[in-house]
Amino acid sequence: MRFTASPVVELPVGGAVLAFEQDNDSFEVGTSVWPSSLVIVKFVERCLGDPALPFADVLRFPGTRAVELGSGCGPAGLGLSRLGLTDLVLTDIAAVLPALRRNLRRNRLHLPRAPRLAQLHWNCPAHLATLATPRRFDLVVAADVVYVQESVPHLIAAMDALADAERGVVLLGYQIRSPEAHQAFWDSVPSAFPVIEKVAREHLDPDYAYEESDVYILRRRPRQ
Predict the structure, then answer these.
(1) Least enclosed by CB within 10 Å: which of 5, 29, 67, 209?
(2) φ and ψ at residue 115, rounded to 5 degrees
């Protein structure tokens, strides 16, 4: 992949500036930085700075076991790692993992602890079973992953398989990429995560509140 000819996206977070190299000429969509990944990180940073904000309870990182689906070249996962999410696994398909590894190396000095990387095809039971061992995850992170209608059932099944059966939460950065995929996702996801809460735009970082991008919290059950 021709990273040297690709633009670099910088993300100021947690008092450091992370830098993500892209390969926008790749056939793999995961080698580009997508807006919702940045929106998620800056939303989390804002919540950590103000525990009174709604949804701050989702972001109590100490002891949280987390996984990101479709990590791409790493902005969301590495940004959350910078903010203190230390028990974190970043996943993507084999063709995208080299880009993820490269950006992990590039930003390693800014991370309290390096996240683990794993190959994951959402429709592969063996991959899902390996990740869910020894236990499922408290937090599943995903940004800009709903864009192909045919992949929607596999995505929801992966979220369902990896999130803890009782307290599992999904932090979702979302942008409409395909009307068909959009409809399929929101028709089906309540079967696994019946509590769906949209983060109000005023709670997003104002510099990263892109008009097209939203943040959702998906839960197994209502907050107590």
Answers:
(1) 5
(2) -70, 160
Q: Which domains does the chain have, with CATH numbers?
A: 3-219 (3.40.50.150)
DSSP readout, the chain? Answer: --GGGS-EEEEEETTEEEEEE--TTSS-GGGS--HHHHHHHHHHHHHHH-TTSTTGGGG--TT-EEEEES-TTSHHHHHHHHTT--EEEEEE-TTTHHHHHHHHHHHGGG-SSPPEEEE--TT-HHHHHHHTSS--BSEEEEES----GGGHHHHHHHHHHHB-TTT-EEEEEE--S-HHHHHHHHHHGGGT--EEEEPPGGGS-GGG--TT-EEEEEESS---
Q: Can you tell me the distance from the alpha carbon of 170 to that of 69, in angstroms, rounded to the nearest whole number?
A: 10
- pLDDT tens readout for residues 164-188: 999 999 999 999 999 999 999 999 9
Each residue of 191-205: pLDDT tens digit?
Answer: 999 999 999 999 999
- Bridge partners, residue 12, by sequence: 17
Q: Write the CA distances from 60 to 35, 82, 83, integer angstroms.
A: 24, 14, 11
